[in-house]
């Protein structure tokens, strides 16, 4: 397997760091022979509410943990889209929260664009806080070389607070089964 | 300010990642003009229980998030000490959980070595799970160019689960006030 670079990004409160941690741990603990590194950057912009988490996955040791040419860009806010879309590699894959991100010309370089109303799906479960996990289910179902559902669900059960796990597992399933119209 | 590199390391279950996230966020959100990047690496060794989290702090933008020459090494297990002590820079500062880490010749290159029985302190509060925060209090009091107490406590109150926060704040205070004998 070649190196795979994934960036999750959105605004503060969307649980972007958790997405990165879940995927990073799931890969390393349960995907045989794969390493992963998760990086969270906090700059002055984090005071304005932007948030991002990179996961780099490789069968080799990962000497350079920073994502520089994204194979996958999973984005839950307009601001994060505008900031990081230049980093998506040509032929990369884009996942967007369709009601929070407005695509522009930069999206043309993506090989595939997956859209999901993750926040609305979460709201059917009572709170938009589940949007990150709905998105993660959608990513897991459609991005075959990131992480398996089994590994991710195992780590979710370990890391997510007991009182939230049930609804997160439903959000994950709804994301996983979501199909774009048309 | 020059770049500062900090590594937290120990075994799984000690809450090493949380130490990194608390410091990373506290620096970026509440220390004026400073950026930080937090990196968690998960390799095959993470299955064996090793855990580490790096925080790089700089007033400049951080292009290379990986810590390569540690200014500070905060270590809570023997295995992690043996693995990473070669990365401590000459004249760097070492913080050790004194009952879990046995120093060797490599420790001579440290300018200062701070020892604390963090796990025993945590156990006086009912559980060793507070050892990471006791250590963090000790680090905060003695490593002046990482992060302020005020910033760290603010972020702890936001990120630590409600039912654990009170004891964690006590653990932090005990660590902060701990003095080595002799």
Short description:
2 copies of one chain form a homodimer. With 182 residues, chain A is an alpha/beta fold.
Structural account:
The structure is a homodimer of 182-residue chains. The model of chain A has no long low-confidence stretch (mean pLDDT 92). Chain A is globular, with a radius of gyration of 15 Å. Chain A has helices at residues 16-30, 78-84, 118-123, 131-142, 149-159, 162-177; strands at residues 4-11, 35-42, 50-58, 70-75, 88-97, 112-116. The longest helix of chain A has 16 residues, at 162-177. In chain A, α2 links the parallel β4 and β5 (88-97). Chain A has one domain (4-177): Pyruvate-ferredoxin Oxidoreductase, domain 3. With 182 residues, the first copy, chain A, is an alpha/beta fold. The first copy, chain A, has a six-stranded mixed β-sheet, with helices on both faces. Chain A is built from six helices and six strands. In chain A, α1 (16-30) packs across α5 and α4 (131-142) packs across α6. The interface between A and B is medium-sized, with 27 and 27 residues.
């Amino acid at each position: 397997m070649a190196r795979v670079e994934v960036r999750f990004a959105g605004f503060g409160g969307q649980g972007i760091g958790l997405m990165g941690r879940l995927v990073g741990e799931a890969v390393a603990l349960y995907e045989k022979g794969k390493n992963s590194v998760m990086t969270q950057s906090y700059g002055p912009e984090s005071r304005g509410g932007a948030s991002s988490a990179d996961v780099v996955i490789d069968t080799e040791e990962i000497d350079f943990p920073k994502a520089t040419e994204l194979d996958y860009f999973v984005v839950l806010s307009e601001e994060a889209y505008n900031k990081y879309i230049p980093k998506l590699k040509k032929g990369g894959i884009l996942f967007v929260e369709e009601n929070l991100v407005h695509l522009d010309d930069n999206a043309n370089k993506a090989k595939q664009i997956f859209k999901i109303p993750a926040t609305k799906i979460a709201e059917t479960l009572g709170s938009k806080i589940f949007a990150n996990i709905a998105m993660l289910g959608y990513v897991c179902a459609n991005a075959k070389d990131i992480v398996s559902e089994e590994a991710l669900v195992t780590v979710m059960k370990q890391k997510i607070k007991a009182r939230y796990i049930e609804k997160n597992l439903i959000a994950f399933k709804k994301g996983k089964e979501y199909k774009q119209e048309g």
